[in-house]
């Protein structure tokens, strides 16, 4: 306990010495930082903040130091996160690379790959996207057909095919790409994972617009793209288990309520502010009841999440990430339905946001975004199938 207290003090002091003043203010959407070679910092202080946090290894605090992390244990990571949150500083970076690809490369990559890719991910210098879904392969992912053939003369894979719904592909530096390397094997057995530089000749992207107004999705076209064999992750034709492991990381990430601390409105505070405060309690009894239920659901899921982390520490990788993803994404939708109700016309900000406060301006877009959370990372129906088969042992 004392060790954690000392560490919390150390972190607080470091933040006081290093966090630029502006990074203590709520973050407008356009100032989010996702890193990578194409990052354009809207706020110059965000760049300073990113570099300082990265230098501490605190963007990926649990990763070993040799891979750009800080080698912290899980209690220290918790203390670090809580201290950042309590002091109200902005997250320095949002990163699929840190949440999903990095841990998978750490587990399946060889030493050369780990040293080549992980430090840049941990420093926010490269941004990654996930090349899984294809026009003919979504829920039934293993039927993917993007093809890779080894050119034995140059020791390169030649990749041709199309990916779809690839989040942030147009802004990313690397594609974590599932390819079919054996068309004769059964569908789960002929898949491999290639780590593809988005600058490679033959890679192109086309953005797709979402109902939230943003267009973080892309189609990715791969036309005779040459990928060094050194970028094959794991064994040839054994990529399916790697693909599933990264999905577990993705679902674990989606099963957290405070992934980025970026926009995490406390409904009870909003309700008191916008719908009336009666002696420190939400005035409307019915609303109070609904908010309490939602906050209890999310708190219970967060505690379950902590339990899962302990299980992972003990060497297990439980299926609970699927259950949590399923439950948390529904609770998240419920939360943003409630938020819009509470805010009334202050929750309708979309464009021309001058008349909205920073914590009002994101509500409508987050509400719309919550609707797609039960699809991304595998739909809710697919999560229920997995739970039925793998957790409950029900027949196919
Ligand atoms: C926010 C978001 C981000 C995403 N980011 C990425 C990304 O970065 N990279 C990437 O590769 N993909 C990404 N996707 C794509 C996502 O993984 C797919 O949309 C998802 O797996 C569903 O596939 P599909 O869209 O082809 O739907 P389909 O598979 O065609 O499914 C259509 C409907 O049928 C249901 N269904 C299908 N099969 C079954 C079954 N066996 N049992 C019961 N119901 C079934 C589904 O639940 C769904 O309701 C993203 C999607 C979203 C929404």
UniProtKB/TrEMBL annotation:
Its cofactor is FAD. Residues 237-392 form the Acyl-CoA dehydrogenase/oxidase C-terminal domain. Residues 129-225 form the Acyl-CoA oxidase/dehydrogenase middle domain. Keywords: FAD, Flavoprotein, Oxidoreductase. Pfam families: Acyl-CoA_dh_1 (PF00441), Acyl-CoA_dh_M (PF02770), Acyl-CoA_dh_N (PF02771). Signal peptide: none annotated. InterPro entries: Acyl-CoA_Oxase/DH_mid-dom (IPR006091), Acyl-CoA_Oxase/DH_mid-dom_sf (IPR046373), AcylCo_DH-like_C (IPR036250), AcylCo_DH/oxidase_C (IPR009075), AcylCoA_DH/ox_N (IPR013786), AcylCoA_DH/ox_N_sf (IPR037069), AcylCoA_DH/oxidase_NM_dom_sf (IPR009100), Mycobact_Acyl-CoA_DH (IPR052161). GO terms for molecular function: flavin adenine dinucleotide binding; oxidoreductase activity, acting on the CH-CH group of donors. Its EC number is 1.3.99.-. Residues 28-125 form the Acyl-CoA dehydrogenase/oxidase N-terminal domain. One of its GO terms (cellular component) is plasma membrane. Belongs to the acyl-CoA dehydrogenase family. This is Acyl-CoA dehydrogenase FadE17.
